[in-house]
Amino acid sequence: MARILSKRPLTPVTTLFVVDAPLIAAAARPGQFVIVRVHEDGERIPLTIADYDGGRGEITIVVQAVGVTTRLLGALNEGDEILDLVGPLGTAPEIAAGGHVVGVGGGFGAAALLCLMRDLTERGEKTTAIVGAREKDLLILTDELGAVCGGLELCTDDGSAGFKGFVTERLQQLIDGDGPGRPDRVVAIGPMPMMRAVADTTRAAGIETLVSMDPLMIDGTGMCGGCRVTVGTEVKFACVDGPFFDAHNVDFNEAVRRNKMYIDLEHDAAERQATACQRAAGGA
Questions:
Q1: Which of 97, 114, 147, 278 would suit a FRET pair with 257, their CA atoms being 20 to 30 Å apart?
Q2: 258: helix, coil or strand?
Q3: Could you give the C-alpha distances from 112 to 5, 123, 129, 141, in angstroms and in order?
């Protein structure tokens, strides 16, 4: 079991947890993830390690309540224990030294940029984070990212904070030489459509780009095969071979189809949970 040390809401549906996990914290690297199980009969879900502190024995995870398990996890409080927390899993991305590295985070995906961008900045790279959301109240960890990056660019669809428009539009401006300047490398983490759009943007400019295919992951060990993704001519598993891959070689048509494969089942499970909660409340 892993005890929750602190809990902080980031948006109405997104929560940050700092968890006591000394063995994981000691071995963690940017881009890796953990597998979480909330109760004995629950499913196992992968969550990216947003931050880690080996000296303190703590890791940070950010949870967006979109399904049954993430809602159950979000309902836990400081002092509560998470039944299972396994990791670190996955492979840290290999990013060559030198040049300007731009991290692009869409919505919830911004959390996964935190320790990655800090690591790149500390090793001497020029770094910029472009973070986007529909509106300013849905932007997360902007102060923390601003503290670890050389530059921070905020984007909102409605213009309520920073640049009005998509992260890809602001990225194109940087490619054209605006602001912090043209990127030499790009790392994108977020919803599948956003990562696909980033790949299209940088492909035309010939800029090396990595994307995190963690939206495909299910069990996190390669056993289920649910996170298969075609990269070039090879079939990879996002959880054990990634989650980071060359964006220009990822078959996004296949990945998008796979990402939507279980949506109906996820909705059904969420409705069953809501019904069960209502019945329990009525009987209390």
A1: 114
A2: helix
A3: 20, 18, 11, 10
Is 196 within the bounds of a domain? yes
Is residue 264 a part of any domain in this protein? no
Please report how the helices 192-205 and 167-175 are oriented relative to each other, as an axis angle in degrees rounded to 10. Answer: 20
Distance of alpha carbon 242 from its chain centroid, rounded? 13
Instruction: Compute how many other C-beta atoms are within 10 angstroms of the C-beta atom of residue 69.
Output: 21
Please, which contacts does 4-9 make with residues 24 or more away whose CB atoms are closer than 8 Å? 4/76, 4/77, 4/78, 4/79, 4/80, 4/81, 4/82, 5/58, 5/78, 6/78, 7/76, 7/77, 7/78
Q: Which stretches of the chain are assigned E, i.e. beta strand?
A: 2-11, 14-20, 33-37, 45-53, 58-64, 81-82, 84-89, 100-106, 126-133, 151-156, 163-164, 185-189, 208-212, 228-231, 234-237, 244-246
Number of compact structural domains in the chain: 2
- pLDDT in 10s for each residue of the chain, 284 residues: 899 999 999 988 899 999 999 999 999 999 999 989 888 877 888 889 999 999 999 999 999 888 888 889 889 999 999 998 988 998 899 899 989 999 999 888 889 999 999 999 999 999 999 999 999 999 999 999 999 999 999 999 999 998 999 999 999 999 998 888 899 999 999 888 999 999 999 998 999 999 998 777 776 777 777 778 888 989 988 888 888 999 999 988 887 776 665 555 555 555 655 555 445 445 55
Last residue within a domain, chosen from 39, 61, 89: 89
User: What pTM value is reported for the model?
Assistant: 0.85
